[in-house]
Amino acid sequence: MEHVKLCLSGNRASSPRIGEILRHRGAQGSTSYAINSRSTHPLLLNFFRRHTCIAVLLYADRDRQISRQPMNEARLTEKLSVLADAAKYDVSCASSGSTRTNHNAGLGNASRMGICHSYTADGRCVSLLKILLTNHCIFDCAYCVSRRSNDVKRAAFTVQEVVDLTINFYRRNYIEGLFLSSGIFKDADTTMERLVRVAKELRTVHKFNGYIHLKTIPGASELLIHEAGLWADRLSINIEIPSDAELQRVAPEKTHEQAIKPMRYLHKTITGLKEERVVLKRAPLFAPAGQSTQLIVGATPDTDRTILGLAHGLYQQHGLRRVYYSGYVPISTDARLPATGSTPMVRENRLYQSDWLLRFYGFDVADLVSEKQPQLDLDLDPKTAYALRNPVLYPVDVNDASREMLLRVPGIGQKSAHLILQARRHGPVRMEHLQRMGVVLKRARFFLSFGGAAHALVHRPDRLRPHLIAPLRQKAAQLDLFA
Amino acid sequence: MRPAWAAAERARHYVYDGSWPGLLTVVFSVFSEKRPALSVVRDRNQLTDLFAEAREVMTDETHADRVLAKARNLLGQRRVRELWSCHLAERNEVDRLLVDFFLLTFTGGAVDDVRDPTVLGLRQWRKHVSHEKHQMEAFVRFQENANGIWTATIAPAYDVLPLIAPHFRNRYADMEWVIADQRRDYGLHHHAGRVSPVQFVHEEEGRLPALRVHAALHERAYVHLWKTYFRSVDIPERRNLGLQMQHMPKRHWRHMVEMVGLR
C-alpha cells in the first residue's frame, strides 16, 4: 500500500492555498499520518473503508528543485503580444470533433465536445493558443492586418518558442491546444514546412496529444499538406472573400481556386483514410477533426445569399466541418475597401443561425434567402423570418406533428423537439410542459396548437412581426434614431 | 402505478448522513416501512417543522446494495450513474426527487415521461451538475510547485471532483497533480495513473510542521505570458462584458490567474 498524505497549512479563514502543499518522505519511506477529525466527506469515508491506511504526505524539499525559466522572457512577451494580436481576427476557436486519445502516457488528449478555457472581455471563447508563426508576409490582401503594405510591427517565433509556449500553457490547463497560422514569409512551401515542423515536434518529441489546428498555406505542395494532416487534428484554409471577383479586387495574388484545390485534396484523403481505418485499425489518424474555413462578412458588397450559397456548397462538396463568418472590423485604411464602420454583429449572428439551420434543421438556402431578398432580416432570427414568410405551414400541432415540422417552429430546438416526441408517447403534451422542456414560448406560442385553436395572429404575419422582434433590438433601434 | 401506501398523508421526513449509500438506505426504508418521503435532509436542524415525524436513517451497506442492484436491473448502469451524479448536487431538493424517482422506478412508473415533474426535475439537475463539471474541466488552473507537483484550487457549486477525475487523469497522465476543493476540504491526488481522494489536514489540528513551499521559479513567467496573451486576443471594439460573464461566472474568477488582478 502506498502511503501518501496531504497536508494543507493555514486555516480555512486565511483561504488555504494549495500552493502551500508540502512534501515529505520520512525515514525508510514510512510516513507519519494524521486524519482531520472533521474528515466526513462521503467519498473519503468510502476510501478509508476500502484502504487500511491512508498516508498523508507532502513535505518540502524533494531532492530536485526544478526550474524551467523561458529563454529571454521580455522578448518572448513582446512577440506573443504582436503575433497573438495579428491572429485574433481568425474567428475559428473550435477544439472539438477530434478523437485523439492520450495513447502513449504522454501529455493531453482531445475532448470530443471541445473545451473553452476562458472568455475575453468581448465575450469570445479562448480555447486554443491562437498565434501566427510570423506576421511577415509577401502578400498584400486589403482585408488583412499583416499585409505587406501595412506599417505594423513585425515579429517571428522560432519553432522552439511555439512548442515551449504550447506545452507550458497546456500543462497549466490554460488551453486545449495550438492553432498555428502564419504570414507567408518567403514562399508557400517554406512557410508550410515550418508549421508542419512545429506540429511534428509537439507530437513526437513531447508526446503531445492535445488539439492542433494548422493553417494550410495556399499554394503549398501536396506532400507538405499531407504531412500536416498526419500531425494536426484540424486543417483550415480561409477563403475570406465570398466571391471570386471581389477577392481578386482586394487580394490580387489570390483566387478561390487556390483555396479549393487543397480542400479537395484533403477531403479525398480524409474520407479515404477514414474508410481504411474501418478495416485496418492501424491506419494513421489523418486530420480527425476535419477541415474548416472562414468568410469575411461586410468587407465587400457580397450578399448573404452569396455567402450562404458558398457555405452550403462547401459543406456538401468538400465535407467541411465548419464555416466561420467573421464580421469585418476595419483594421486598415486601404482604399480598396469600403470606408464603412464595423459590420453589425447582428449580421454575423444571423449568418451563424442560418448556418445551423442548414446543417442541423433540414433547411435549404432557398428557404432563407432568395433572389428577391438576398439579405437576411436583421431584426428577426432566420427561422422566425421563415415562419412569417410561410404562414400556411403553421400552426404546428405539438401532439401530432413530425420531427421535421417541430424543428421548423421558432423557439423549438433539437433538444426540445426530442423531448416533445419522447413525452408524447405517454400522453398529451400541454403548454406548461413545453416551458419546462426549454421551449422558448415567447416565440413558439404563436406557431403552435394543442389539438384545438391556434393563436389568433398565426396567419397575420404583418401584425405578428412586432411581437417577435426582441425588445433589446427595439431599444437599440430607438437609440440609433437619436444618435 | 403508485401503490396505495404512497399517499401523501403517510409521508414523513427522512434524515440521513449525506452519502450515496445513505440515500439508497433511505429508499430502502421508504419501501420496507411503506412511508413515502415528505422531505429528505442531511441534518435534523434543516427541518422547518420541529414537531414533524422524522426518521433518522443509519447508512446500511447491504440495504444500499440491494437498492442499487435492483435499480441497475431496471434502469441500466448508465442511468443509475446519472442519478448518482445528480446526488452530487448536495441539495435536499434533489435528494427528495431522487427518492421519488426510485419510488417511480420500483413501482413500474414511466421513467422517461418528461411531463412528470420528478423526471423532468432530475433531468434539469443532471444538466446543472454536468454543466458545473464541464466548467471545472475548463477553469481549473494548475501551477507548478518547486517540487514539481502541479496544484490547483477550485470551489465548485456542486461536489464535482469525482466527475472530473477521469478527465484530468487521462489528460495529465504524465504529471503528479492535486486538485483541491476549497469548499469541501478535500481533493484529488494523481500519481502514476492513480487518482485518490485526499483530505486536507489543517495545521492547528494536524500537528504537522508548517513548511512553506513556493511555486516554481518559472511559474511567474508563464503566468505573465498567459496574461499577455489573454489581453492581446481581446477585440476592444467588440466589448461585451455581459456575454463574458454569462459564459464564465464571476464566482470562478478568483481561481483563474488571468482574471486575478484585472480591473
Descriptive account of the structure:
With 483 residues, chain A is of the alpha/beta class. Chain A has 3 domains: 65 residues, no CATH class; 266 residues, Alpha-Beta Barrel (TIM Barrel), CATH 3.20.20.70; 92 residues, no CATH class. Helices cover 38% and strands 8% of the residues of chain A. Chain A has a 6-stranded parallel sheet. In chain A, strands 1-2 form a two-stranded antiparallel ribbon. A two-stranded parallel ribbon of chain A has the order 9-10. Chain A is globular. Chain B is an alpha/beta fold and 263 residues long. Chain B has a 5-stranded mixed sheet with strand order 4-5-6-7-8, covered by helices on one side. The longest helix of chain B is centred in the middle third of the chain and has 23 residues. In chain B, a hairpin with a 2-residue loop joins strand 7 and strand 8. The chains are: A alpha/beta (483), B alpha/beta (263). At the A-B interface, helix 1, helix 2, strand 1, strand 2 and strand 3 of A face helix 5, strand 4, strand 5, helix 6 and strand 7 of B.
CATH-derived architecture of the largest domain in chain A: Alpha-Beta Barrel
Q: Main β-sheet of chain A, in a few words?
A: 6 strands, parallel
Biggest sheet of chain A: strands side by side, in what order?
3-4-5-6-7-8
Q: How many structural domains in the coordinates of chain B?
A: 3
Quaternary organisation: heterodimer
**Strand residue percentage of chain A:** 5-15%
Strand content of chain B: 5-15%
The strand order across the widest sheet of chain B is: 4-5-6-7-8
pLDDT averaged over residues of chain A = 82
Q: What is the average per-residue confidence, as pLDDT of chain B, rounded to a whole number?
A: 86
Distance between the termini of chain B: 58 Å
Radius of gyration of chain A: 28 Å
Number of strands of chain A: 10
Number of beta-strand segments of chain B: 8
Ranges of chain B with pLDDT <50 over ≥5 residues?
203-213
Shape verdict of chain A: globular
Individual helix count of chain A: 17
